[in-house]
Amino acid sequence: MSQRGETSEGAPGAAADQQKKKMKTIYIVYLIAALDITWMFLQFSVTPYLAKKLGFDTLWFGYLQTMVGIIQLLGGPMFGRFADLFGARVALSLACASSIVFFLLLAIADHPAMLFIHKIPTVFMHVLPASQMVVTDLSEPEKRADALSKLGLCFGVGMIAGSTLGGHLNTRYGEAFTACFGAVGSAFSLLLVLKFIPKTTKAQTPRANTESENKRKSIFNVGEITRLTKFPGVTATFLVKIVAGLPSGIFQVMFSIIALDIFKLQPEQNGYLMAYFGIVQMVVQGGVIGRLTARYSESSLLLLSIGVSSLVGLAQAYMQNVFHFCLTVIPMMFSLSVFNVITDSMLTKSVPSSDTGTMLGLCSSVQSLLRTVGPTAGGFLYVNYGVSSLGLIQFVVNIAVFVYLLLRRPKKLAEQKE
């Protein structure tokens, strides 16, 4: 009897301890993600100005961005699969180690070719998708959107810290020192991963040693990656994510050029503007999205984000100066944040927990696809039709997607009732 009593009392205690461990891991992951975004925005304070020094024009800078998009487009799904198979610690360690190499190559870049070469390690630089996988694995499905939005809060913190720090370091000490600082920061992130992140965050499942199972476990098994698109709702959500996200993706990719050519911003001023982005994103991700997801359905919030994005595009088409642009930042960051969090949450809920890393890898490949097409398309539109064309395309495309989802909604609700 006493043994039974101890067991029944011990079970809730063990569950509480397990929950504490999960929350500790999630908080450490939030810190690692915030640091990674800091180093990423630190790099944004270096690359455009170094590219200009080395003789890059708008078109060649677009080619450089396109190269990164292609590399990460190929690397994203494979990295997600790698994370599912080998665990969070190994995946995050690989991503942080790649960041160190990336910054060291940037620090010694003194020729146009070196700017292209230093982008090669980005094939493994997927700290954010790996962090999303950990948070997805350790959070309850009903709280997933809120937990993922807190990663967006980390993004805001990193954006402010990285942009401000990068602007100051680049202005006072130059590009090479700033890049070396990023390498040291990435090394610190790697130490945090090795110290605090568990080997795996997946629920333990029985293992099979059959030949088919071993083949299934191959990182390069494309069939295992593409089969996720066969789950209900995945393909439709992916198409919306790509089509509605493309115009805003083009504008984001081209923004560093717009800041330089249209707004005539210096590195330090650009840093302050990016910090403003970060503050807005922190407020939206930390204080708004959690409350919205508790009250409204994900499909309603998806519609809202696309509708707001179309209006943002219209406003950006007619902006004349940096003050006008600052007025569009709040609705722009709101629509981007809600759109990305909701689509990621919808997609991860559509697949088994054992495949969340691969699914988030596919989600990151959507962003990479936008960065691949974005620079070339954006450079062409900007050179031939001006900055207003970027906003007008965003308005037209998002309105079309909004109307499509609105017309499709009654049918979807009827299917759910049946």
Automatic annotation (TrEMBL):
Q: Which UniProt keywords apply?
A: Cell membrane, Membrane, Transmembrane, Transmembrane helix
Domain Major facilitator superfamily (MFS) profile stretches? 22-412
The residues that cross the membrane are 27-46, 58-79, 91-109, 176-197, 238-260, 272-294, 325-347, 389-407
Could you tell me which PROSITE patterns the record lists for this protein? MFS
Question: Can you say where in the cell this protein is located?
Answer: Apical cell membrane
- Output the superkingdom of the source species: Eukaryota
The record's listing under PANTHER family reads:
SOLUTE CARRIER FAMILY 22 MEMBER 18
One Pfam family this chain carries? Answer: MFS_1
Bilayer topology term: Multi-pass membrane protein
Its primary localisation, in coarse terms, equals membrane
Keyword Nucleotide-binding annotated: no
GO CC annotation: apical plasma membrane; nuclear envelope
Q: What is the scientific name of the source organism?
A: Seriola lalandi dorsalis
Quote the protein name from its UniProt record: Organic cation transporter-like protein 2
Q: Extract the GO molecular function terms from the UniProt entry.
A: transmembrane transporter activity
Q: What does this protein do?
A: May act as a transporter of organic cations based on a proton efflux antiport mechanism. May play a role in the transport of chloroquine and quinidine-related compounds in kidney. Plays a role in the regulation of lipid metabolism.
- By its UniProt entry, which InterPro entries does this protein fall under? MFS, MFS_dom, MFS_trans_sf, Tet-R_TetA/multi-R_MdtG-like
